[in-house]
């Protein structure tokens, strides 16, 4: 199994357990989260960090931004579903959304 | 009239004449354009330049990105329509999408 193979429901559920706020879309083909920040600057800072991670993973989000809100959807088109790559990118986005220092 | 006052249809049409590819949304409340780039990196480069311009103007887009595509919608919520600020941000985005050198 490679990172680009479609995961089954159990594997997705196990992956989501480590990703607070993320959920499987109704159609089961993608995972989603809505992030809210203090400002546009913080929202776009998150997007910038996520974009670098996405490019490094060679796996990219579908996302919508208005002011301090970012709606993210992750799916792997070639697999027609959710793969380990989606979970990996979601984990990078969680890191990008969290302050580095306590 | 300030930059945050709602423009009438004639003023919007005059403004759009200088913004190739931009059009008034069906409901008349926003202006829209879909940009396509060679890659995610170019698309996000455009978004980064646009984000800096938006922050400087203190006026922000609603936008959706998937890979090399960026769908942009500009409106001024406080005016419930299109204002000079939307036209100004659209002009900055046009500049961001165009190569600086021939």
Automatic annotation (TrEMBL), chains A, B:
Gene3D superfamilies: Transcriptional coactivator/pterin dehydratase (3.30.1360.20). One of its GO terms (biological process) is tetrahydrobiopterin biosynthetic process. It catalyses: (4aS,6R)-4a-hydroxy-L-erythro-5,6,7,8-tetrahydrobiopterin = (6R)-L-erythro-6,7-dihydrobiopterin + H2O. Pfam families: Pterin_4a. Its EC number is 4.2.1.96. The keyword Lipoprotein does not apply. Keywords: Lyase. CDD domains: PCD_DCoH_subfamily_b. Transmembrane segments: none annotated. One of its GO terms (molecular function) is 4-alpha-hydroxytetrahydrobiopterin dehydratase activity. PANTHER family: PTERIN-4-ALPHA-CARBINOLAMINE DEHYDRATASE. Belongs to the pterin-4-alpha-carbinolamine dehydratase family. This is Putative pterin-4-alpha-carbinolamine dehydratase.
